[in-house]
Structures are given as structure tokens and as C-alpha cells.
Design a protein that fits this description.
eight-stranded parallel beta barrel; 37% helix; 30 strands; seven-stranded mixed β-sheet; FAD/NAD(P)-binding domain; alpha/beta
């Protein structure tokens, strides 16, 4: 087989080594535009886990790499006047040129030919090659020339950074956050040999411009950074290597190959330097492609298809983590000054969501113990509740107070429609559904979207608070929860708007009722879906009537004994239809900018707040993003939350989407938590977070990192009503059981094998 790698970086060289080992008869050529010792940047970094992958792939190059690297286990976070250290991580740094030289020698020893200072125009230069690697870096000419084949997507990020080196060796992965008159600067530094370190300086673009760095050459950049970080450098100098200010590109491609040409490394994908995965990804690409060729001998196209199928999910998972990390550093001003050093460091360490509270506890139990103690002390002080501090409870088992309501813990049962009511009246199903989850240990149980009128229902099976009969039915459930658990119980009051008069889901989700429907209302006369009923655009009389319905529902909720109400302003229902520009096209005082779109929902909130007891809190659920062009964005969500806070809303339940049926949501683990994080820390209001939360490790991480104040689980609680109690047991936290279940004290669960 004849193989050509256009690009002699880690991806091309490492693949050439592995391919030559697998088939010594193959002819492999690496074409590199630069000299052997000419490379951008200073050092690369690998985790211990990554190095293990290299050991299995090629023991010889692995040994040479480990002989040359600098190894450390600590992460030091310099924030304000303090340094927070976390240990037990395991990283290795290596000079980039040293890595390239190791791979060059190994490839040459195996018989790979390398042509330096040779510019390849593209695959057409090698018509007899069986396989061509496009490993020509971030600015890949091949990716650009064949954009119609690869479908590249480049997202140029908003921060500016410059890649520097320093003669000061850093014995840890070191992060500096330093204020300057122009703004906040961050440094990512790590040792790459015994006497030198990489020193990456990053800042917001506004800070970069205010500091005059947009006009700085390399020498001026060095001078500025040496002056700013003089104390951190301790008399050492900074070094330059094509050190110009850059913007990071997040690169992905719709397709990874065509014919016999395949993208690898930075030409194919990038992962932000804050998690140090660029070189890791490139070399693991090489391993995956070599494995695919072994599995498909003589079938290059089959191998390339297999390579992409197997490798793409792995790459995309790392890219998601890298993107989350990147965004944390882009928006670190959100936390600086608001968080104390311990909380700030925990937020930084868990920023990518790949490291959790539990992972950190295994690596550094002492550090996590300090985090838990600090969190518990703050929770006790804010709530006035007694909290055992020796040892401190996991963050999820600390109390939380809203007005006169104190939750025993920070786990909530999400409002989940059961579609099982008769004319709005909850029955035994609702008693068992909500009662079992309250006994199951959740601190807060939120009853499903409960409609303020018969005309405000989604389906005929939805619960309501619009008749006297509903009060007694709900009171039966509320009284059971209060009498038999420590849980508080809330109700979400709602009006379906244009999404109403549909079948229950098992008869066809969003399907209009074939008979027995009712007229719909919305901000504008826009049907939810083709074939859906067209709602009436509300006039003033409609608004007054609906507002009165919400007031009546709140009064009924108080008579039923609920501890909190949640106003539903999300998911495209009536109040949400005013909030989103996709569903509100009005030209009167209730349409237009965000303040006008919020006018009617805030009128409803004011009217509800006026009749709801002052000692009891009110939550509002919002959709933080519509996931469609022209709709609300996370920026809008922050502005909306600021207005809710100013109006007296106690906590925002941050959800997302479901505004329009053709939105393009980005699902995934904890996919809505970043919206909660942003709303909480930019609008300065307490939040509840929802969305694919399934583990107690994630709950503890979210809370300790300041991304939310309450974790709301839906499907997890459907699957396991006792989810919270089981989480307590697994963490060794003693949660008292009801006296009827005292026998559990002598029961030890066993895993099935």
C-alpha cells in the first residue's frame, strides 16, 4: 500500500509509525512544509490516561516520550490573593519540538520517508497513492480546497489568546486570573521540560482592545505580559514563537473523507487548549485509523467509513467537553468577584462536566472535604437550619431557603404531566405519584402543569385549579405529603395557549382533538403546527380574563396548602407565547422588544404575587433558548431573569426550547445546566436546573460549582421514586426513613450479578 501524509505533525507522523509497523511492506511518505525543528508553540500536555493509550499502540515511541516528559499531579488556581491547590490529577508535559523529533526518528527508523520544506498542493500531487492523509493543520489547504466534500464548520471564538513560553518551570498545571485596568486576564501554564513552561495568556476581546494589544507586535506583547505578570514570573522572562494574538477556531466537519482522502488532527477537529486535547486527539486519530485499516485489509474506503463511525462519537464527546471548558474561560468574568476562591476553583476544575464532585473526591478527598464544609456552612447560614458539619453532608443534602420555606435538601421532582385527571380533578394516581416521590426523599415535589381554566388545558386529562372541587382533591395530596414526609410541595400553574385542545400523548402527541375541543388563545394568531387550530390573538378583555384565572388558581393553591407556586412561562404555552419573538408578532404595547413582550406575563405575575402569601415563594419557569433563528437566546434569558428578579420572583426554573415544533435543540447530558449557570450568575437570582440530570455526582457538582441552587429531576424520578434516598445511601448519608419503613435499618441492598 502507498500512503501519503500531507502534514508532518503528530497525527501524520504517528499514523505513519503505526501503519508501517502493521505492514512493513507499505510505502509511506510524509510531506511537511516546515523544517524538522520548526513548529508553532512550545509544549504539549497529556493526561496519564492518554499516555496509557500510547503505550499500547507503540511501546518504543511511548518510552522515548516518557523519558523526556515532565510529570505533575497538582493543579494550582491563583485567584485574587489566594492559591487553591487540587492534587491527584496526573499530567505530563513535553516540548512540542521534542515530541516531533521523537516521532520523526521513530518513523525514519521504521522506513517512513519524510520530505521537509516541501509544499504539497493536494491529493492531485500523488495520483498513485492508495491513501492520502490530510493532516495539514488548523489552516488546512486540503479541507478548504475540498470544502464541498468535507462540509467544514468553523466557529471563531470571541476571546483572544497568545501562545508564549517562559524560563520559569511550573511544577503544577497553573492558572492565573489577574485583574488589570483594562479587564481580567487568564493564564494557562504548564511545564514542558525541567527548565521551561508554556505560558498562554487569554482575555476577552474588549479587554484586549482596551489594553492596546490589538495594535501590539510580538515585542510589545512580550513587554506587556512580562510587566503584567512580573510577580508570577518571579524574575523569569517570557519567550516568543510566532506569538501573535489569535482567536481560537472550533473546527468540525460533516464528512471526514472522500475517495481515498481523509482528514486527521487539527485539520479535522480542534479542542480548546484549556483541556489540552489537540495533540491527544491527533494521535488517537492515528490509532483509530490504523486499527480501521487492520480490520479492513485491502478496503481503504471501508476502513475510512469504519474509522469515522467508530471515532466520531469519541471526538464529539471530547469536543463537547472542550467547548464547555472554552465557554467557561470566555465567561469567567461571570464568576470573578462573585465567587470566593474555593468555589471559584471548584467551578473551574469541573468546568468541562467530565470531572465531577465524585471524581475529584477520589483524586483529592481533602480538597473536596473543604469544599463540602464551606458549602454546608453557607447553606446553614443562609437557611437558618441546623446542619451537621463533622463530617459535612454532600452538597445535595444541605438545606435551602426561599422566603419562609426551607427545603431539607436540594433535589426536586420536576412537574411531569400525567394526563390522568377528569375535568381537571386529580385522583388516586396523582396521590400515589406525588406521595411516593415525597416519601422517596426529594426536598421539593412540584405537581404537574395545572391549568387555570378548562380552556387552558393541554389535553382533557390535564389537572386544574379552576373549580372548587379541585381544591379538596389537591388538599388531600398536599396534606399527605406534609403528614408523611419532610418534603415541600409546589404546583405549577399554567395556561396551554396555542398548544391546547390536543389528545393525550398515547393517542397522539400534539394531535388536535377530533371532537370536544375548545377555542385557543395566544399572543398572536399563529398555529403551533400545520393542522393545529389557529388561536385567537388575545385582546384586552382576554388578558383580563386570563389574569383573573391565574389569580383564582393561586388562591385555590393557597387553600389547598401548597408551599410554593410556579408560574409557567416556558415551552411555548400561553405566557411563553408572549415572551418569544417567534410566537409574538404583535405591534401593540405587548409586542416588540423584550420589555413589551414581558408586559402581560409580568402583569399576571404581579396579580398572582398580590394574592399569594408573602411568606411563600413563587418560581417562574422560562425557556432560556428557543433553538431557532429569530427566537430568544441565552442573552435574552439573562435579561428576562433580571426583570423577573426586579419584580420579586424568588427563583427561576431554567428550562429550554419547546417553543416551536421545528426548533433544533442540542440535547446531551446536563444540556440545560449551562443556561441555569448563566442566569444565576449574570442575573444574580437563584435557579433550578433541569435537563438530563441522572446522577447524584452531577447534582453535587452542579450545586458546589454554583451552577444552580436546586437540581430538578424528571425521568430519574419516574424510574425510581426513591432516587433521593438511594443517592443518600450510596453516599453514606443518613437520611431518616418514615417510621413505617423502620425495617430498612437492617437491610443491605445487594447488586444482582
Amino acid at each position: 500500500m502507498k500512503i501519503v501524509s500531507i502534514g508532518g505533525g503528530p497525527a501524520g507522523l504517528y499514523f505513519s509509525i503505526l501503519a508501517k509497523k502493521a505492514d512493513p511492506s507499505s510505502e509511506i511518505l510524509v510531506v511537511e512544509r516546515n523544517r524538522p525543528d520548526d513548529t508553532f508553540g512550545f509544549g504539549v500536555v497529556f493526561s496519564d490516561e492518554t499516555l496509557g493509550n500510547f503505550a499500547e499502540a507503540d511501546a518504543e515511541s511511548y518510552q522515548a516520550i516518557t523519558d523526556a516528559f515532565a510529570h505533575w499531579t497538582d493543579i494550582d488556581i491563583h485567584y485574587g490573593e489566594q492559591v487553591v491547590t487540587s492534587t491527584g490529577h496526573g499530567f505530563s508535559g513535553l516540548a512540542r519540538v521534542k515530541l516531533l523529533n521523537i516521532l520523526q526518528r521513530r518513523a525514519t527508523d521504521l522506513g517512513v520517508k519524510i520530505r521537509f520544506e516541501t509544499e504539497a498542493k493536494g491529493p492531485q500531487d500523488f495520483p498513485d497513492a492508495d491513501l492520502i492523509l490530510a493532516a495539514d493543520g488548523v489552516n488546512s489547504g486540503i479541507r478548504q480546497a475540498y470544502a464541498d466534500r468535507f462540509g467544514p464548520r468553523l466557529d471563531w471564538r470571541k476571546n483572544k489568546f497568545v501562545w508564549l513560553g517562559t524560563t520559569r518551570p511550573h511544577p503544577s498545571f497553573t492558572f492565573h486570573f489577574k485583574n488589570h485596568e483594562s479587564g481580567l486576564f487568564r493564564v494557562h501554564a504548564y511545564q514542558y521540560d525541567r527548565t521551561n513552561s508554556t505560558f498562554i495568556v487569554e482575555c476577552a476581546q474588549t479587554t484586549w482592545k482596551r489594553a492596546g494589544l490589538d495594535a501590539a507586535d510580538e515585542a510589545q506583547t512580550l513587554a506587556f505580559c512580562e510587566k503584567l505578570f512580573a510577580a508570577e514570573l518571579g524574575g523569569h522572562r517570557l519567550q516568543a514563537n510566532r506569538s501573535i494574538w489569535r482567536t481560537f477556531p472550533t473546527i468540525s466537519n460533516d464528512r471526514w473523507s472522500f475517495d481515498n482522502v481523509v482528514l486527521m488532527g487539527d485539520a479535522l477537529h480542534t479542542a480548546h487548549f484549556s483541556i489540552g486535547s489537540g495533540t491527544k486527539l491527533a494521535m488517537e486519530d492515528a490509532i483509530a485509523l490504523a486499527d480501521a485499516l487492520k480490520a479492513h485489509p485491502g478496503d481503504v474506503r471501508g476502513a475510512l467509513a469504519s474509522y469515522e463511525k467508530v471515532r466520531r462519537p469519541q471526538v464529539e464527546a471530547i469536543q463537547r467537553a472542550a467547548q464547555t471548558s472554552l465557554e467557561w474561560f470566555e465567561d469567567v468574568e461571570r464568576y470573578a468577584g462573585r465567587f470566593d476562591p474555593l468555589e471559584f476553583a471548584f467551578s473551574m476544575l469541573t468546568r468541562s462536566m467530565r470531572i465531577t464532585h465524585t471524581n475529584l473526591k477520589l483524586r483529592d478527598p481533602g480538597y473536596v472535604g473543604r469544599v463540602d464544609l464551606d458549602f454546608a456552612r453557607k447553606a446553614a447560614g443562609a437557611s437558618g437550619a441546623e446542619v451537621k458539619l463533622d463530617p459535612p453532608p454532600p452538597p445535595m443534602f444541605t438545606p435551602f431557603r426561599l422566603r419562609g420555606m426551607t427545603l431539607a435538601n436540594r433535589i426536586a421532582v420536576s412537574p411531569m404531566c400525567q394526563y390522568s385527571a377528569e375535568d381537571g380533578t386529580p385522583d388516586d394516581w396523582h396521590l400515589v405519584h406525588l406521595g411516593s416521590r415525597a416519601i422517596g426523599g426529594a426536598g421539593l415535589v412540584i405537581a404537574e402543569a395545572t391549568d387555570v381554566s378548562a380552556q387552558g388545558r393541554i389535553t382533557p386529562g390535564c389537572t386544574g385549579l379552576y373549580k372548587e372541587a379541585h381544591v379538596g382533591a389537591w388538599k388531600r395530596i398536599v396534606d399527605f405529603v406534609h403528614a408523611n414526609s419532610a418534603a415541600k410541595i409546589a404546583v405549577q400553574i399554567a395556561h396551554a395557549g396555542r398548544k391546547g385542545a390536543t389528545c393525550v400523548p398515547w393517542d397522539g402527541a400534539d394531535k388536535p382533538l377530533p371532537s370536544g375541543g375548545w377555542p385557543l388563545l395566544s399572543a398572536s394568531a399563529i398555529p403551533y403546527k400545520p393542522g393545529s387550530q389557529t388561536p385567537k390573538a388575545m385582546d384586552r378583555a382576554d388578558m383580563d380574563a386570563v389574569k383573573a384565572d391565574f389569580v383564582r388558581a393561586a388562591q385555590y393553591a393557597e387553600r389547598a396548602g401548597f408551599d410554593m407556586i410556579e408560574l409557567h412561562m416556558a415551552h411555548g404555552y400561553l405566557l411563553a407565547s408572549f415572551v418569544s419573538p417567534l410566537t409574538n408578532t404583535r405591534t401593540d404595547e405587548y409586542g416588540g422588544d423584550v420589555d413589551r413582550r414581558l408586559r402581560f406575563p409580568l402583569e399576571v405575575f404581579d396579580a398572582v404575587r398580590a394574592v399569594w402569601p408573602q411568606a411563600k415563594p413563587i418560581s417562574v419557569r422560562i425557556s432560556a433558548v428557543d433553538w431557532k433563528e429569530g427566537g430568544n437566546t441565552p442573552d435574552d434569558a439573562v435579561e428576562i431573569a433580571r426583570r423577573l428578579k426586579a419584580r420579586g420572583v424568588d427563583i427561576v426554573d431554567v428550562s429550554a426550547g419547546q417553543t416551536v415544533p421545528d426548533g433544533s435543540p442540542a440535547y446531551g447530558r446536563l444540556f440545560q445546566t449551562p443556561f441555569s449557570d448563566r442566569v444565576r450568575n449574570e442575573a444574580g437570582i437563584a435557579t433550578m436546573t433541569v435537563g438530563n440530570i441522572s446522577s447524584w455526582a452531577d447534582c453535587n457538582t452542579i450545586l458546589a460549582a454554583g451552577r444552580a441552587d436546586i437540581c430538578v429531576l424528571a425521568r430519574g424520578h419516574l424510574y425510581d421514586p426513591y432516587w433521593t434516598r438511594h443517592a443518600a445511601y450510596e453516599q453514606g448519608y443518613a437520611m431518616p426513613w418514615p417510621r413505617q419503613y423502620a425495617a430498612t435499618r437492617s437491610f443491605t441492598p445487594r447488586e444482582s450479578r
